[in-house]
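Section: Multi-chain targets

For targets with more than one molecule, the full set of components is provided together so that the structure can be written out for the assembly as a whole rather than chain by chain. Components appear in the order listed by the source. The example entry contains two components.
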Amino acid sequence: MNIVLLSGGSGKRLWPLSNDIRSKQFIKIFRKPENSVPMETEYSRGYESMVQRVYRQIKTVDKNATVTIATSKSQVSAIHNQLGGDVGISVEPCRRDTFPAIALATAYLHDVQGVGLDEAVVVCPVDPYVHDDYFAAIQKLWELAQAGTANLVLMGIDPTYPSEKYGYILPTSTDAVAKVDTFKEKPDAATAQKYIDAGGLWNGGVFAYKLSYVLKRAHELIDFTDYADLFVKYDTMNKISFDYAVVEHEKDIAVMRFAGDWKDLGTWNTLTEAMEESAVGDVRMDAACENVHAINEMGVPILAMGLKNVVISASPEGILVSDKNQSSYIKPYVDAIDQQIMFAEKSWGSFRVLDVEEDSMTIKVTLNPGHRMNYHSHERRDEVWTVISGRGRTIIDGMEQPVKPGDVVTMAAGCKHTVIAETELQLIEVQLGTDISVSDKKKYELKTT
Amino acid sequence: MNIVLLSGGSGKRLWPLSNDIRSKQFIKIFRKPENSVPMETEYSRGYESMVQRVYRQIKTVDKNATVTIATSKSQVSAIHNQLGGDVGISVEPCRRDTFPAIALATAYLHDVQGVGLDEAVVVCPVDPYVHDDYFAAIQKLWELAQAGTANLVLMGIDPTYPSEKYGYILPTSTDAVAKVDTFKEKPDAATAQKYIDAGGLWNGGVFAYKLSYVLKRAHELIDFTDYADLFVKYDTMNKISFDYAVVEHEKDIAVMRFAGDWKDLGTWNTLTEAMEESAVGDVRMDAACENVHAINEMGVPILAMGLKNVVISASPEGILVSDKNQSSYIKPYVDAIDQQIMFAEKSWGSFRVLDVEEDSMTIKVTLNPGHRMNYHSHERRDEVWTVISGRGRTIIDGMEQPVKPGDVVTMAAGCKHTVIAETELQLIEVQLGTDISVSDKKKYELKTT
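Its structure, encoded as tokens over all components, is:
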């Protein structure tokens, strides 16, 4: 099957593990099946992220599935680091709602991946917490679209309670696959109960269709020739949802019921419900703790005593200690935190801020084997590298030299520099200057041997 | 007056702010009076430690008071850093109970400080949380001993409830100063109530006496000539409390009542009661938090939401999140944490561990102006210094050189090295080796210019 995973925004509601540059779908907190390959970082050994879990589940159900992730530029490095190079990525140049994102991904499948206009694709969020049966249902949905059952085939989740959080789909019959009668916006609980009594299903945000169908609608709404043209024009497009642009205008829609487990992990409360263990990382709890979950990304222990219904999360960005229910109100508090980014995954590896002073900053840089930083210089700071592990080569103002642990490289402001990792390579970088800023960076092309 | 402050053990019960090498009396969490001098570190600006608070209070009551601190070697640096050089320090070569400590401090006063045998001294714990009136009472106690009111003059705290945590003193009358009839060990609550009904007072652990009195008793129990001799023999002495060695054998004891505020800050629960503000450091709390206290020594924010009766404490050593009552059971959990020391105050400044890897460790070193490290070498590790702030001089294998921010010094194993700070000086030290250990250190004498 062809599947497009919509990998959305920054997810501040899971701070401090997610923030402006690190999204919730990349946090490694789910225990991997026993036969999986170990992970790289200390705390996450044996754990996988939402996106890794979903990708693994898709490949379990259909090892030939073609997976494309529709996302923003900021997530590309994390996706490659976590999923490798086999996954397709449709990069949105800027944030526009779900219709432009799905149109762009569909054009990408046709023009870049060579998927035929008569072939089906199923579009699904990247972060459902589900079992493999969900992706078996996704495959069935794809087959229904492929067979031309309807122009659009949706997934309807069997409701377990009258939720106010979801839209409802009312089918024309109680069959496993039925035509859709009508859609309902998020209701209050009493109305939700009426919908359920009338056979209503939760709208799971999953759409299956043939490429030609969405591309036709896209050409009606946008003046573009092909993927490349749409990519260039992306920032001129209106923010418009797929529901509003497509679903509301379509009469021929089918819905397939899904009655398995399905969770939406948007808040600490729902996320911790999905954790198989109460703690990830170095966490000690006394016997008086009840319903406490803790995730510790720091190198020092967390000790929790006598707490009830609390989530604790510590990362290089900060420390959250919250009553689980209260944690759903986190967003304005996180918005008010105006802080230096302390950890980031990059295309070439990752960095972590170790120390910040007025006229200096010390960071730890980890380069993945075979990768390198951009060749760059800074105008307003000097830098000192001390290699602490691994082997590689530095290029400093055009001069290439091998480096090993203990080697020190000093770079005055203006000096062009990069490091190329042969094995995984770690270094301590001390930045010195009165005006240290991420924007003080000039990139150069590099001709390597 | 002469006052000896007994500065005791490590106080693991206030982990992660106190640990094996950092004692609770040095944690800066009390808001200083408005006209005080600002402190050096970011989180503690405007805050003072228990020992600073007590020292300031003593000097407020009697600006000519001679203050001596009886303590172990491990606290000397912290005392000098926090109180400066005016305070006397009687260093216990090893831990022996209160009688050897008080005998040594008394010999120190006589033989080192030149205090006369007929002069009185008052001995008091370093960590009572009190107002100035307590030290006014201490001064009165000293005057009573000086006037020969009794061989021993104690402070009796007016009990506010039938506590099981304290010993009781039963006086012969209800006078402000009375002879002691009898002492009672820590009772159960019902017995405590009986003592209170009979006019009993809490034993505040404060003793005033003339130097000759304790030295005479010391010579009866220990074979020594003077302070220097006692210091050398200290490790051969039995562990014996002052109560057991002195108080129990003395008939002529007076007690003076004290009815002011008096708190013993041994646990997170009692410590947070004494905090004037609910948070120290970068802490954000939502309105749903009730009776929550947080102390944050880390450079990143803590966000607390919807918690009740909880203490949060984050330091380079770890993170505690505990129900306040439950926090009194912390000790076995902290004993089980076998961890690298992440922060330490030294005679010359402080260091903080920034990063630990298998074959390297990165630390940040802060030297106080005019101070230097020991001149030393390591056998099994190389080191790299990058100066990030301040001015000073390095001495590397005998060669002296000025250093400024951005200067890099590389030291192979075996190389003798030190750095002398002219201003406050900070550097990042990267240690490289397969067997990094604090015990890998050889010290040398240094002849500086």
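The mean pLDDT of chain A is 91.
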